[in-house]
Amino acid sequence: MESSLTSTVAAALPVLLVWAAAVDLLTRVIPNRLVLVLAACFAVFALLAGLDAARIASHAGCALLVLVCAYGLFAASLLGGGDAKLLAVASLWIGPNALLPFLAGTALAGGALALAYIAADFAGDVLRSDADTRDRATAIPYGAAIAAGGLAVMPDWLASI
């Protein structure tokens, strides 16, 4: 990275990923505006970092591939729409050099998150009486797993820039 301004824009990735995770945990929604801001910040970052057209295209290709796959998971009701968009825009930033570790870290964090939700649901069943009819959320806020995967590859991603 060349300048402190480039570093500042690069800092948008972890900050916005953590923000998306927090919003998803609290509301179970990842706002489209947040995804658009992440994409816009990447465009600014690419310009400031002096990425050439081929490198930008490879990052965009990663995002498109992930979006198509994530849309398939969304169509099968295995992933939320906001999660699919966040995963794609994070892949735009991550690019081809760290994409597989990012996806692996996201999958591992997602598995841990799912196990935590299953355990909490089981504990709730043990403590809940038949008369207790509280609604239970069944969706897992996968934005937190995406953020964890992104943060896990951050050192490698920064080194590849």
UniProtKB/TrEMBL annotation:
Occurrences of domain Prepilin type IV endopeptidase peptidase (ranges): 12-115
Compartment list: Cell membrane
Transmembrane intervals: 30-49, 56-79, 99-118, 139-158
Entry-linked Gene3D superfamilies: 1.20.120.1220
Superkingdom: Bacteria
Keywords, sorted A to Z: Cell membrane, Membrane, Transmembrane, Transmembrane helix
Listed name of the protein: Peptidase A24A prepilin type IV
Source species of the chain: Rhodomicrobium vannielii (strain ATCC 17100 / DSM 162 / LMG 4299 / NCIMB 10020 / ATH 3.1.1)
